[in-house]
Each structure stands twice: as C-alpha cells, then as structure tokens.
C-alpha cells in the first residue's frame, strides 16, 4: 500500500511517516521546500527511507502541487496547514480561504486519482469547541457534535490562532462533505494537544511546548494553552504514539469514516500545573501561570474506542513524557 502524508516534516507527520515505514508501507511525503536540508534530511535519514520513501514539493498555497504526490496512492493523510497567513499568493484573502481551497483541491485530486480509497484529515480540537452556538457559555459535554462558532469570545485573543481555529473549522467541514463522493471515504481525526517522549525534530515541537509551558515559565506558549482552554473549556491532550496509532487504525479499517475526537484526557490548565508541582517540587511555577477556571465540562467522546481503538497512555504518562522530551530543548530543568 502507498500512503501519502502531507506536511511531512511536522512533529506528528514525521513520527507517523517513521512508523509507516517501519510497518512496511511505501510513503509519499510532501514538504513545502525540498531545498530545506534540515527537513529533507530529517525524513531521508529514517530507516527504510531509501527504498520506501519518496519526497514531493507542495505548498498549501498552491494546492494543485499535491496531485503528483497523491497519484498512485491508496490512502492520503492530510496534515499540512498554514499556521499563519502570508502574502505568498494574492489568490487568497485570508488563512481560512487558503486552507479550505487546499482541502478541496486535495479531495478532488483523491477522486481523480482513481486509486485513493480513503482520505484522513488531521483536524484539531480548536474546531470542536463546546461553546454554545450563541457563544455565551459552554455546553455540559464535549463530543463529536461540537463545532467552533465562527465568531467566538476568548480572554486570550491571539490573532493567528483565532484565524487558525476558523480555518481548521471551515476546512474540516469542507473535507467531510466529500465523504462517500467518488468512492472515497473521509475520516476527520480531531486531535488534542499532542505530547510524548519522542520527537524527530531538532527543536521543541509547539504542541509539546505549550503542554509544558507552565513548567518552563514560557508565557507565550502558556497563552496558547489558555487560548485552547478558553475555546474548549478544558485542554484535551493525547500521546504522540496514541494519535499516530489512531491514524493507522483509521487507515487500516475500511469501514471507519466520519468525524472522531482523538484525545483521552481532558484537563484544566491548573490541573496540569498542579501535576508538575506535585511530581517535581523543584519546578517553580509562578502564580501567573496558574488560573483555575473551575469549569466542570465533561469529555463525552468514546466514538473512536467504540470502533475498536485502544489508547495506551493516560494523562500522567503524557505529561511525564512531555517533560522528559522538553528537557532536551530547555535549560530550565537543571535540577529536575
């Protein structure tokens, strides 16, 4: 089987590619720039890459570039997405217009290929807010029926992440509209904040960085953590190995299609801080990094597990592994 993975140098995508190669799959991976030696080298150095991995250059602002990578594949896993709008193309007015055009073009390429049977879209919990439709307060639970309102209030208004949440929400709705068209099945995996012990990257992954932001006293990343909390009520988290396994589970099970939340823990940011303080007394977390919202929203999604998937890692392992990984990139933990 040939699997196309877009955005191949990302934290999750690169680990997924590594796992797919280890399992004997042939992988077509896209990168925005094949002239970037760090990102190209990261993938070319993987075991089995010489015989099982082919790299393609493709930019989400030029979505037609993905067609050659998709050609001949049976599964496409679409992870590439712009994190902020640039003026690379005057064709798109904003990030969400570019992101929606990208998923539409990729879905159309899947149909035209004649070989693709499944398109898996890596979505985000920023698109699954349990805010009420009028954005005045939260629902009692968070599940697959939750969608982020286009105009939503937040105490932590970060323009780039407001645009990101909007673009991912609109793009996810667009890609799900292709489910069943042209004989392709569409899966949307709505992933929580990802953490874990491993990374192939030589820099701190952003998702992992925000998860340990209180322990590292990183105000910028902490504000992103709080942005997610204000959007989702609490912070859904998932282990890197579990979310990788979930993608492969959806890929290998032909009957799986539709929308699935992919996170097995749902914590307040204050609970994350408390966990690190309890297990690592040497870590000092200033009070400005501890804000207890006192919300009691419940996680109400078992759809992925009901389909047969099993999570291996609980929140304790996710947080402990994330801190271990963070030590590689931060001198903040000399005494931990």
Q: Mind sketching the topology for me?
A:
Blueprint: E1 2-5, H1 11-22, E2 26-31, H2 37-44, H3 49-52, E3 53-57, H4 67-70, E4 75-78, H5 95-113, E5 118-124, E6 141-142, H6 159-176, E7 185-191, E8 193-195, H7 206-211, H8 213-216, H9 219-232, E9 235-239, H10 240-252, E10 258-262, E11 265-267, H11 269-279, E12 298-299, H12 303-306, H13 315-326
Parallel strand pairs: 1-2, 1-4, 2-3, 4-5, 5-7, 6-12, 7-10, 8-9
Antiparallel strand pairs: 9-11
Helix pairs in contact: 1-10, 5-6
Structure in words:
The structure is a single chain. This protein is an alpha/beta fold. The protein has a domain at 2-195 and 236-266 and 303-312: NAD(P)-binding Rossmann-like Domain (Rossmann fold, 3-Layer(aba) Sandwich), CATH 3.40.50. 38% of the residues lie in helices and 16% in strands. It has helices at 11-22, 37-44, 49-52, 67-70, 95-113, 159-176, 206-211, 213-216, 219-232, 240-252, 269-279, 303-306, 315-326, and strands at residues 2-5, 26-31, 53-57, 75-78, 118-124, 141-142, 185-191, 193-195, 235-239, 258-262, 265-267, 298-299. Helix 1 crosses helix 10 and helix 5 (95-113) packs parallel to helix 6. The longest helix is centred in the first third of the chain and has 19 residues, at 95-113. The mean pLDDT is 93. This is NAD-dependent epimerase/dehydratase domain-containing protein. One of its GO terms (molecular function) is oxidoreductase activity, acting on the CH-OH group of donors, NAD or NADP as acceptor. Keywords: NADP, Oxidoreductase.
